[in-house]
Amino acid sequence: MAGTSRVFAAQLSGLAVFGPDGESIGKVRDIVSGLRVGNNPPRVLGLVMEMGTRRRVFVPMLRVARIEATAATLSTGSVNMRAFAQRPNELLVLGQLLDAKVTVNATSRSAVLVDVAMEQTRTRDWQISKVAVRERTGRLGRRGPVTVLSWDQVSGLATLDVANQPQEVHQLLALFEDMRAVDVASTLHELPSKRRYEVAEALDDDRLADVVEELPEDDQKDLLTHLHEERAADVLEAMNPDDAADVLGELSEVDKDRFLELMEPKESAPVKRLLEYSHDTAGGLMTPEPVVVEPDTTIAEALAMVRVADLPVALSSMVLVVRPPTGTPTGRYLGCVHIQRLLREPPYSLVAAAVDTHLASLRPDATLTDVTRYFAAYNLVCGPVLDEEERLLGAVTVDDVLDHLLPEDWREGGLPDTDESGSAPVPRGGDRA
């Protein structure tokens, strides 16, 4: 990023914001910082920008190409137009941090924080590294000098204390209501354990299941073992079987067996089958609940099945045709029908007339490398998994493949941001540590 590498926050208030082509976009109204534990310098997540319409939106720091004395310039003209709403694990630098009372560690004197300095690190992240404080002299009418100190040279700003301030759970639930599960998971990951538990206990089983699926493994195990075991079993039942199997596979044998016993047999059966396979094979990656139809199903019926709102996008890309029974393991697998083909066929015709019988399939013992090559070779986002008797066992989707290709801690590294198109609205998750 060109421009200044250290910026004092107070200088940014009201600063003009321009797009990459020099067009005026708005003005800076505040700076959003992420809460950190102890005296660790907070990470700067982004800017609160006020548009010409007085709408305030969030601009991630990664979108800020340059900060100068007269203006800030963005690297893109695309801005997420969702109205800014502060999250529980965020702090507004100008609105909440400035004028805070602190203690200077070296002198044990009280002081007032009058400004903070933001610096860019080698990884292009911004963090609050310095604080400008004015000590109290004790003399009426006299103001002490302003001193610039490192963040860890003052106390009273420990962000964990801010995060633990009393807050009604219903306020968090209202905040999470319109957020995607992955964004709720990102926020929960940043909250103190106590607050995370309170939110988990307040969410209903289906919503909590969606969120748990998106959490890092350590958080998943922590939440499930915190919940009452019967509640945890209900949440596992509400999860996708492959995700439930992944979570249970990380638990001790005692905990895993206990949860499986508490689950309804109908819900635990597919999970137990998945646990028989190694997690890095097609059998361990697959979901046992793809879209399955018999050959005499009409095109209209098949389209209705892939139109279900809760169906993952990757699974809706393909209808798998089998002989009865249609529950996995099914009868003999006949082939698949891609959604593009469904859309081109008359709704009254049968899927049997549109089946692709030539697409290769996967075996449950196929390695992660084999599965990756399969998706790359056939340009697919979903692929059937068959046993030696040509029965359908399930389907692997590209999101599960990516999940295993990425580093284990990828969920803790942040989420990408989107523009105002709303094609993948991930509000500010990409700029959290």
Walkthrough of the structure:
The chain is an alpha+beta fold. It has three domains: 1-153, SH3 type barrels; 169-276, MgtE N-terminal fold, CATH 1.25.60; 292-405, CBS-domain. It contains 16 helices and 19 strands. The strands form three sheets. Strands 1, 2, 3, 4, 5, 6, 7, 8, 9, 10, 11, 12, 13 and 14 form a 14-stranded mixed sheet that branches. Helix 6 crosses helix 8 (229-238). The two termini are 19 Å apart.
Low-confidence stretches: 159-168, 417-433
Named CATH topology of the largest domain:
SH3 type barrels
Total strands: the figure is: 19
Spatial separation of the terminal alpha carbons: 19 Å
In DSSP terms, counting alpha (H) and pi (I) runs of 4 or more, how many helices?
Answer: 16
Instruction: Estimate the helix proportion, in percent.
Output: 25-40%
CATH architecture of the largest domain: Roll
Content-based structural category? alpha+beta
CATH domain class name of the largest domain: Mainly Beta
Instruction: Choose one word for the global shape.
Output: elongated
Structural domain count: 3
GO molecular function: magnesium ion transmembrane transporter activity
Organism: Allosaccharopolyspora coralli
InterPro entries: CBS_dom (IPR000644), CBS_dom_sf (IPR046342), Mg_transptr_MgtE_intracell_dom (IPR006668), MgtE_N_sf (IPR038076), MgtE_transporter (IPR006669), PRC_barrel-like_sf (IPR011033), SH3_actinomycetes (IPR058838)
Pfam families: CBS (PF00571), MgtE_N (PF03448), SH3_actinomycetes (PF26205)
